[in-house]
Amino acid sequence: MSEFKLSSVEEFEKATERLLETGAKVGADSWQLRVKNQTPHCKFGEKGICCRICSMGPCRITPKAPRGICGCDAHGIVGRNFLRFVAGGAATHSDHGREICHTFTHVAPDGDYKVKDPEKLLRIAKEWGVETEGRDIYDLAHEMAELALMEYGKPYGVQRWLSRAPEHTQKLWHDAEIEPRAIDREVATAMHMTHMGNSSKAEALIRQSLRSGMSDGWGGSMAGTEFSDIMFGTPKPVDTEANLGVMKEDEVNIIVHGHDPSLSEMICEYAEDPEMIALAKSVGAKGINVAGVCCTSNEVAMRRGVPMAGNFLQQENVVLTGACEAIVVDVQCIFPALGPLSKCFHTKFITTSKIAQMPDSEFILFEAGSAGEKARKIVRMAVENFVNRKKELVHIPQLKQKATVGYSVEAIIKTLDGVTNSQVDETGTTKPLLDCITSGVIRGAVAMVGCNNPRVRPDSAHIGLMKKLIANDIIVILSGCSAQAAARAGLMDKQAKELCGDGLRRVCELADIPPVLHMGSCVDISRMVVLASQLAKDSGLNISQLPVVGCAPEWMSEKAVSIGNYVVATGIDTFLGVEPQVTGSSEVVWWLTEGIRDWVEASYFIETDIDKLGDRMIARIEEKRSALGI
Ligand code: XCC
Ligand code: SF4
């Protein structure tokens, strides 16, 4: 028998406790302490019934004061707050996608950024009806970058990517009037609708919430994923490691954190530069070790096998090891706490984007035009900082697990097709996966995504649910911080097949895959809706009929709700383990959990008891199976 053993949440917590002792020594603050100061939370905020949209307010809804000064009721206030929350998430993901498209305008055969997957570029160009015959690949790339950027502001028409969905889904979107027009327009419309004196009808606000979410998943995020693949390579299975133990005591540790691979890819490049490695040796380090936190970590793990130090609620831990020479961040999910925290250590906290500027950081503006030069400067700063380490503060928890990551849709199709067909053609189909499902070898699939949130014992919901699902022969596909939780626990080790039911274990053996598949960062949830569309087309079923559900058990961000909206709008029931701030309106709750089903054949399920959440997901999958007679 093998010696495979998962790492437990208890082990994670013990490691964190030890690090917090170091923190106490140097007078560092931590989220664990700040949570205590912030709880109990404001009830009005939790229920979504506080309105600050105009300066006649703020207005708060109580039994004695059922309307704001303008007369808006709880349903209008909650609905507006929800729509603004979604718009925040859609704007954020989509702007990330836009940055990628801008970087893509800089690709050049001898530049910092190149076309690494020309086949994918050609495929998408054909999809968009762009002439490819006899074209120079870089010339084509520049035209495609322009076209992609136009999707953000075009005055007429709807998103190009929508045509990837099955006809039936497209018709639902059309009839429900939720096809996203220009990406920016859906965010602007959301802001306009929620300005004082516009919409206060829950139905209208929820409809626009779906449409804004759609402009993310079937617009900005999809652009982010696809053009990242073209520029940095479409992920293929690759081995890596995860958890704080990937940091190295005798090397310069550079942590990349955030979301945009344009930066982290360049840092990885220059960390491998012989000149930089020689410099590291000259200051007494054995080498340069790059590891990641949050989604930028997922990006470079999937494409380069760069190890994953941790997810969202571990970002302070990497600094608390005392062995982090630099934490280099781009955008999103970065704790402002990293500024003061890094001051307690020798760590350099380097911000690089005008979008994410923070006190107590060193700002080095990172732009596509000068990417190489800036990346080199950052790596050099980190290396030169090695001598400032305070040895007595260094403690790296010896926890890490092996992980196989990199399951893009292309990689999944290729891997599974390889099992059944001796001749793999380039496009492949999802038929083998469908066969596994219809024959009952696999009972269904869950797309598990999203963050950590101190409202849930960190990582316990992700890991607990995954274990339960795979034991029930349900395959799990993952992205974001959920994926990192899995990797840190060891669930992405191929040996984790031991924890599966018989059917899923057989599939893992035949296909040589782990039972939970890493599909990427949060923008890569666009990969999941593409996969669902492909499964529906190949099976002749509607997406909503597939025994597939989505789940965000520990979500926290606006982005997560935007994602939830486009996943539901795609026809996939979505299970949340943290309540959105909508419970102050029975109407909004009804629309989200029931009403929208009439439009998109799916809805939200909210369940904060994580065990029950798992049971309900399995029950839902079984319901879908019986409806199909399997
Ligand atoms: Fe952020 Fe994407 Fe959430 Fe993780 S999962 S905490 S949004 S890094 Ni997207
Ligand atoms: Fe109050 Fe209406 Fe102004 Fe909101 S928009 S703060 S409910 S008066």
Describe the protein's architecture and organization:
With about 625 residues, this protein is α/β, with parallel strands linked by helices. Helix content is about 50%, strand content about 10%. A six-stranded parallel sheet has the order 6-5-4-7-8-9. It has a six-stranded parallel sheet with strand order 13-12-11-14-15-16, sandwiched between helices. Helix 14 (about 340-345) links the parallel strand 7 (about 325-330) and strand 8 (about 350). The chain starts with 8 loop residues before the first helix and ends with a helix. Iron/sulfur cluster (SF4) binds near residues 53, 72 and 196. FE(4)-NI(1)-S(4) cluster binds near residues 451, 480, 481, 521 and 522.
Short structural summary:
By secondary structure, the protein is α/β, with parallel strands linked by helices. It is 49% helix and 10% strand.
Side-by-side strand order of the widest sheet: 6-5-4-7-8-9
DSSP strand count: 16
On the 0 to 100 scale, the average pLDDT is 96
Unreliable stretches covering 5 or more consecutive residues? none
Helix-strand makeup class: alpha/beta
> What is the percentage of strand-forming residues?
5-15%
The main sheet comes to:
6 strands, parallel
Bound molecules: FE(4)-NI(1)-S(4) cluster, iron/sulfur cluster
Radius of gyration: 24 Å
Form type: globular
* Distinct helical segment count: 25
End-to-end C-alpha gap? 34 Å
Helix content: 40-55%
